[in-house]
Design brief:
The chain is mostly beta strands and 221 residues long. The chain folds into 3 domains: 8-86, Elongation Factor Tu (Ef-tu), domain 3, CATH 2.40.30; 105-183, Elongation Factor Tu (Ef-tu), domain 3 (Beta Barrel), CATH 2.40.30; 187-216, no CATH class. 13% of the residues lie in helices and 39% in strands. The chain has helices at 65-70, 162-167, 185-195, 211-216; strands at residues 8-18, 21-27, 41-44, 47-55, 58-63, 81-86, 105-115, 118-124, 138-141, 144-152, 155-160, 178-183. The strands form 2 sheets. A 6-stranded antiparallel barrel has the order 1-2-5-4-3-6. The protein starts with 7 loop residues before the first strand and ends in a 5-residue tail after the last helix.
Length: 221
């Protein structure tokens, strides 16, 4: 688990193909690795990776085909900056929100503008994630815990303060930048709980919560 509070900006050293998947090596910059052991988890742009090799200024991790397919990691070139966070402990202040490091989908920056000293960003999420994004709720973007300002269908807006622009890779975003998204895990579990027995239906049966489903079960009129 993570908090979504970025601890350092690292850089991709190399991404080596290995039998259909890959090994990723990262220069971790100022990230404190003193307490990181082999097998520990580190979030890289919001993706939970397991350290399989320690280096003087970084670590290496194996990246599965699933992760390469569902995140942006496989598209990053050597030198590309990445957000880094080590796993939280029971003594870690929860300054952001609970983040699992399991990316739900890839979004895209579609608008960027200055607003006093902050930036306003508008992003497009995959359609299947839109129902989990709520105004004033939390969302994790490339590992950064952020508050959603507005929602319009699959589009949502963020306000990025100067500190976040400086201490994360968000300051390098441009229109067209693709980003890893993780929705609030409480929303995901809540959906399954509301489905009740319907959650156990097999493939081919209707899935997910719809307006019709809500009306049939007394949640809407």
């Amino acid at each position: 688990m993570f908090t979504g509070i970025i601890q350092a900006i690292g850089r991709i050293e190399r991404l080596e193909p290995r039998g259909g998947d890959a090994r990723l090596t990262i220069d971790t910059g100022k990230l404190d690795l003193a307490r990181v052991a082999l097998g520990d988890s580190i979030a890289v742009n919001g993706v939970c990776l397991t350290a399989v090799e320690r280096r003087p200024r970084g670590f290496a991790a194996d990246v599965s085909r699933e992760t390469l397919d569902l995140t942006t990691l496989g598209t990053l070139m050597p030198g590309h900056p990445v957000n880094l966070e080590t796993a939280l402990t029971l003594a870690t202040p929860l300054g952001g929100h609970l983040v699992s490091g399991h990316v739900d989908g890839v979004g895209e920056v579609i608008e960027q503008r200055e607003d006093a000293r902050s930036w306003r960003l508008r992003l497009r999420a995959p359609l299947e994630l839109a129902r989990y994004i709520a105004a004033k709720g939390s969302i994790c973007v490339d590992g950064t815990s952020l508050t959603v300002n507005r929602v319009d269908g699959a589009l949502f807006e963020l306000n990025i303060v100067p500190h976040t622009l400086k201490e994360t890779i968000i300051g390098g975003y441009r229109v067209g930048t693709r980003v890893n998204l993780e929705v609030d895990l409480i929303a995901r579990y809540l959906e399954r709980l509301i489905l009740g027995a319907a959650a156990s239906e097999t493939a081919g049966a209707p899935s997910g919560i719809t307006q019709t489903w809500l009306a049939e079960h007394g949640f809407a009129r």
